[in-house]
Design goal:
Layout (H helix, E strand, L loop, with lengths): L2 H17 L10 E4 L4 E3 H14 L13 H12 L2 H22 L8 H14 L6 H22 L2 H7 L26
Antiparallel strand pairs: 1-2
């Protein structure tokens, strides 16, 4: 065997071994890659349906139209500590099976009213003596609910179109002259 070919093959093999751990061979593709989280397509769809259930479409765009689900992912990735992120992810992974156990069907196949009822039931069932999995699911739902309402109210559409913010207060009206007969004497 030629020495050059042996060294070249060894280099290719070493490069492949270095690259192999970074390859993902799972069936489901990752749709969002963040600093700490890798969100799969099914998880992204679940989050979009959750925020849509919390703030549905109406006369003004709902949370899904304003892409609040992306805000929720960013807040979980950037602002939660590792322990809360782990609890959030455990709750998210168990959420659909828990909803199926409670209502007999998966969350994504429920009607809007059934979804709202199941979310309320999940939050209300979390108590001090609940099992850790149920606490994680309740934490997940509560966190999504809070972050959805916060992200929705802070969205560009709401801040510009619905509740426009003025940096400087409105115009100042001049002082009016007070009739001396209507004056109140404070000194006695």
């Amino acid at each position: 065997m030629d020495r050059r070919n042996a060294l070249r093959n060894l280099g290719i093999l070493t490069g492949g071994m270095v690259l192999l751990p970074s390859c993902n061979f799972s069936e489901e593709k990752v749709s969002l890659v963040m600093n700490k989280l890798n969100i799969k397509t099914s998880e992204e769809a679940l989050m979009k349906e959750l925020v849509s259930c919390i703030i549905p479409e109406g006369d003004i765009p709902g949370a899904a139209s304003l892409e609040v689900h992306n805000f929720v992912w960013i807040m979980v990735d950037d602002c939660m500590d590792d322990e809360k992120q782990a609890s959030f992810l455990k709750g998210m992974k168990s959420f659909d099976s828990f909803a199926k156990e409670m209502k007999g069907t998966s969350f994504l196949s429920m009607q809007q009213s059934e979804r709202e009822n199941s979310l309320s039931d999940i939050i209300s069932q979390a108590s001090e003596d609940a099992d850790p999995l149920q606490k994680d699911i309740s934490f997940f739902v509560s966190a999504v609910k809070g972050l959805t309402s916060y992200g929705y109210m802070q969205s560009e559409y709401i801040m510009k179109e619905v509740m426009p913010y003025t940096l400087i207060p409105g115009s100042y009206g001049p002082c009016e002259t007070v009739d001396n007969s209507k004056r109140i004497n404070v000194n006695g």
